[in-house]
Write a structure and sequence with these properties.
Oligomer: single chain
InterPro entries: CB, DNA_brk_join_enz, Integrase-like_cat_sf, Integrase_catalytic, Integrase_recombinase_N, Tyrosine_recombinase_XerCD
Strand order of the largest sheet: 1-2-3
Low-confidence stretches: 1-5, 365-375
Structural class: mainly alpha
Number of helices: 14
Radius of gyration: 24 Å
CATH class of the largest domain: Mainly Alpha
Subcellular location: Cytoplasm
CATH superfamily of the largest domain: Intergrase catalytic core
Distance between the termini: 59 Å
Organism: Aromatoleum evansii (Azoarcus evansii)
Strand content: under 5%
Keywords: Cell cycle, Cell division, Chromosome partition, Cytoplasm, DNA integration, DNA recombination, DNA-binding
CATH architecture of the largest domain: Orthogonal Bundle
Protein name: Tyrosine-type recombinase/integrase
Order of helices and strands: HHHHHHHHEEEHHHHHH
Length: about 400
């Protein structure tokens, strides 16, 4: 293989010879009228991915798995994905659990580098069993679509054994009340001596308020704006603030913006040099970079902020002695999504109606077209206000 093919790189930088690009793959459909104008495997994958271009999180996840398989087939097996067999996928599944050689496939220290960075690698470490299963589910969807589109003759993954889906276990990736208190205490102890430290502190405080009080996904924090906050009166004439969120699957939901959340919003906006309350349709991102930029932070940047807080709180716990090591380990494993689970768990602990928790977190689409549902929304807001607090 030529030197240019020794190191796997992102899709956009690949230039492959015809014996590797899938132009003549063994599994290419012959005698069928193709429904897509793809001459090779990469073009076929891009046609499949184009269907998800409007949903950034789904697109990124699907591209990641397609890219990993594509690069493994070319750089490890020396064949295009349109020539892969059922047996090849059994080997690939084992590869996912331990991508080797590591320096070729895994980014140093598990860091996520930009796609144009020469240090970029397809993996950040071994995939857990659940991540392996998710990868194969996504690839099965892709191959089935390529068969349906008349690009491939068959789906080698359709021969895989499909296990009966087990009921989901109880959520365990959340912070109990004591660990959550440790995180808040760490945030409250952050330095505020310089202007930059002060901006850093208030941004973290606001981000954790959104993730906990709002139960928002990290992708929702990055993709929504402050103009989505609005105020309306309930049937008793009391003003209530809401945050309209466009979330997973392009579904909209209304999140109760409690008094605590609005106080934190006003405080954060003042620190950013903005008026206390947003105007309708204001395009200011929910969380801003430090400095003069008004561009939204990427999902990776938001994740990094959250992880740094968890790591700092864990380090502080570890300093108390060996008896705190297990708790510190749990904090170091935590991610931004743990805060969403934490919010749901804590709301349930406070005996908030499960239907309200469901609607707060957006597990089902929200319908607010009738007066009856409007009244239900006000009850949900009041209950959330009374029982789900952050207590800075």
């Amino acid at each position: 293989m030529a030197d240019s093919l020794l190191v796997p790189g992102p899709f956009e930088g690949l230039r492959l010879p015809s014996d590797l690009d899938g132009s003549h793959g063994h599994n290419r459909a012959v005698g069928k009228v193709a429904q897509i104008a793809a001459a090779n495997d990469l073009q076929a994958i891009q046609a499949w991915l184009a269907r998800f271009a409007d949903t950034r999180t789904t697109f990124d996840n699907y591209r990641k798995e397609a890219e990993r398989l594509y690069l493994w087939a070319v750089f490890q097996l020396g064949r295009p994905i349109s020539s892969l067999t059922h047996e090849d996928f059994l080997v690939y599944q084992r590869f996912l659990s331990d991508p080797q050689p590591r320096d070729k496939w895994v980014a140093g220290a598990g860091r996520k580098h930009p796609r144009g960075d020469p240090r970029w690698r397809p993996f950040y470490g071994p995939l857990s069993p659940s991540s392996q299963r998710q990868a194969m589910v996504i690839l099965n969807v892709m191959f089935a679509w390529l068969v349906q589109a008349g690009y491939l003759a068959g789906n080698p993954l359709s021969l895989s054994r499909h296990r009966t889906r087990r009921p989901k276990p109880r959520i365990t990736r959340y912070l109990d009340a004591d660990l959550w208190q440790e995180v808040k205490a760490y945030i409250e102890g952050l330095p505020c001596e310089t202007d930059r430290q002060r901006a850093h502190y208030f941004r973290i405080r606001w981000l954790f308020t959104l993730l906990y009080l709002g139960g928002l996904r990290i992708s929702e924090v990055g993709s929504n704006t402050m103009g989505a906050f609005f105020c309306r009166r309930d049937r008793d004439g009391e003003e209530r603030w809401w945050l309209e969120v466009l979330g997973k699957g392009e579904k909209e939901r209304l999140v109760p913006a409690t008094n605590e959340m609005i106080v934190e919003l006003a405080r954060y906006r003042r620190e950013c040099g903005l008026a206390p309350y947003p105007t309708p349709a204001e395009d200011t991102p929910l969380v801003l970079p430090i400095g003069k930029s008004r561009e939204p932070l990427t999902r990776a940047a938001l994740h990094a902020i959250v992880k740094k807080v968890f790591d700092g709180a864990a380090s502080r716990l570890r300093q108390r002695g060996e008896g705190y090591a297990a708790r510190a380990d749990q904090l170091e494993r935590a991610s931004a999504h743990w805060l969403r689970h934490t919010a749901g768990s804590h709301m349930a602990d406070q005996q908030i109606d499960l239907r309200s928790i469901r609607d707060n977190l957006g597990h089902e689409s929200l319908k607010t077209t009738s007066q009856y549902l409007h009244t239900d929304d006000d009850v949900r807001h009041k209950e959330t206000e009374q029982k789900h607090r952050i207590g800075w």
